[in-house]
Amino acid sequence: MSVTTMTIDALCVSPFNARRNQHDANAITGMAESLATRGQLYPLVVHPMPAKRGKKRSYGALAGGRRLRAFALLIEQGRLPSDHPIDVIVRDITDKGELHELSLFENLVRVDLRPYEVYAAVARAHENGRTLKEIADTNGQTIETVRRWARLGNLHPTIFAALEAGEIGQDQAKAFGATDDVALQLHVFEQIARYELGDWRRNAAEIRKLLKVGDSDLEKQLRFVGEQAYRDAGGRYELDLFADAADQRGRVMDEGLLLQLADEKLESIRKRVRRQTGKELRFEPAPPRLTLGNYDQGIDNSLEITAEPEPANAADAAALASVVYEMTHLESWAAAALDDEELTDDLRAHCIAAIDEHYEPLEAMLAQLQDRMEIPLPGSQVYATLQVLQDGETELRFWWANRQAKQKAEAAARKDPEAPQPKSVSAGPIGKPVPLPENRQSLATSGAAISRDHGSSERMVADNIIRDEHGLTMEGIQVMRSIRREMLRAALIEDALTGASDTSVALDYLIWSLARDRLTEIDLDLPGRYSHERGIAGLSARSEPMLPSVGAHVKRTPAHATWSKAVAELKQHPCITAPDLAAAFDAFRAEGFGFREKVAAVVVGCALERSANAPGYQVPLHDRLAVLAGFGDAEDQRELVEPTEEMLDMLPRDKRLELVHPHVTNAEYRGLEKLKAAELSAPVVRALKKADAWVHPMLRFSADLPGTLARTLEEAAA
Questions:
Q1: Which of helix, strand or coil describes residue 134?
Q2: Strands 86-90 and 44-48
Q3: Which of 60, 118, 239, 376 could form a disulfide with 250 if both were Cys (CB 3.0 to 4.6 A apart)?
């Protein structure tokens, strides 16, 4: 059985080859790469095929059919010439039974490598000088796959021996391989063994937890410190090669450094707050607790003091207003540049760079102005809490030391009206009295939207309430508010197109709102002076800028299709495109009343503020507009927005389960509970789409007063 060579035109896959599975037979990409880079290592075993009249005799590959297909692919791709020599061993057998038996024997005696043998071989090849790319190219694998194999092959010898002996499985080995720190691997492995922990503590999730991979507290501190600041200080972050989403799960390698940076940043905030308050303010780790009998009732909100930072003087106040105004406009322009699909990448980058030139000095000026602000605190027996939230933001709150201190300060204030007054958490616009309870719930029950220009305290309270109730991040809150505005825009467009009433809701709202906007400038005592109360920006104001990531969520809604179509059509009309403004106005007046109603709907839509059916972001007028436009029912609102996987991905796993629970059977719910967070959104969306008129609670419009406001009024009436 000597080895000879043949060319591709003399060979074919033998019909007696025992491998019948076409998927396996045609999985040849890796083998083709190996043949191209390393050459042929093993010859094909062939036998003569029956000769056909007038044709050259051919040979069938009894062993090596996949190698033959790989050669054919390389020749087809032009990577090998058509006359490339192929090593073969000719078996001069013609008996069909013997050929079948020989092919079966050739496949049965082959034993595939066990996974740990693959890992060890890759690790040793890499250790002896082969690059991961060379190993990947030779074996027809991706470099990511080979990198994972190498990591597993380099597990601590004790752990690798446990894998080889079958004491741990593949998932557990991958969990240990989340880090290349073999000393740490062994420490965790021995920790599990030392305490004779059961198999439930040996699962992959528990191993990662012990390794502090994806540790929520460290991730929070990293967001607070800032990844760049951590890296600039020499901090390292190791991605988990085996994570479902490797960019979202990893391990802080320099924990001590991170905590030191976090402490330094917190201390700098404490120093600034002490300077702003003019007090040697004491900071405690947690807010005061309310205890009744032996039962803990939670945070004692009655002891909280609201103290907003205020500009140090009139000049700083004017400068602050100017800087914020300029920064808001620059952010709006940057968002528009990022969203403009007609801009080339180079032109977009040029626009952003030009905006940054103006924005960065404003940022520095804003930091200086904020640093000079003053925080008036009543009395001396107060303390502060400074906590890092999960999104990396900080929460600064002020508290009375005890009830006696609060009562003493209140009594002194009654005797001296000029003394600083202790304030409860505000629920309404600046300067408005708030006849509601003195705690965080005042905002939850007020039913009023907070102003864009209002201090951060009320917005922080509103966002915290939403975070507790719906599990949304700051970006998620903006997504919901933006989608709800898009729904209302579409509702007004649909109302203008149908012409169900004498005048459209948008036209009435536009004229009315503009009248209130101008008249309240003349008479400051008129109600509705603040634009956020009407839920619409004034003529000279611009809407709150939208993050590009938020815009992506909005564009997925049916409401956006309605809105964008109306805007695109208006942009092409002569009333907008005519360079002569007089001619443009004449073109507008020449159209029918229905067209003007549609334009009114677009104008109103452009001016609409974002709202949400949630404390702090409610605009009762928005609910009224939706009802008048014919979208007061959930069935109609479902035409404007559909649940999407991207929307559900914003929510924590438990909130997704909470939303879907009423719409599935108990058996289906138990099945959903078993899914990982990354697998949950798709089946939840399918279930919610089947549900009758499901719309996320924050997006709903109500035919009645907004829920929290209605409850407040009912309680007051009772």
A1: helix
A2: parallel
A3: 239
Structure tokens at 68: 């033959």
Does this model's pTM top 0.90? My answer is no
Q: Is 210 helix (H, G, I), strand (E, B) or coil?
A: helix
Using alpha carbons, select from 119, 133, 236 the residue that is nearest to residue 173: 119
Tell me, rounded to whole angstroms, the distance of Cα 214 from its chain centroid: 16
Domain boundaries in the chain? 3-108, 139-257, 289-442, 461-641+700-717, 643-694
Please give the Cα distance from 446 to 451 (Å, whole number). Answer: 14
Token couple for 651: 């929510």
How far is the C-alpha of 86 from the C-alpha of 583, rounded, in Å?
A: 80
Give the whole-angstrom CA distance, residue 193 versus residue 202. 9
CA distance 191 to 185: 10
Helix, strand, or coil (residue 11) = strand
Q: Return d(Cα 404, Cα 263) in angstroms, integer.
A: 32
Q: Residue 639's Cα: distance from chain center in Å?
A: 25
Strands 237-239 and 282-284: unpaired
Q: DSSP code of 168?
A: S
Quickly state the pLDDT bin for 657 (edges 50, 70, 90).
very high
Region of poorest pLDDT, from 170-174, 257-261, 398-402, 460-464: 460-464
Fold category of 3-108 in CATH: 3.90.1530
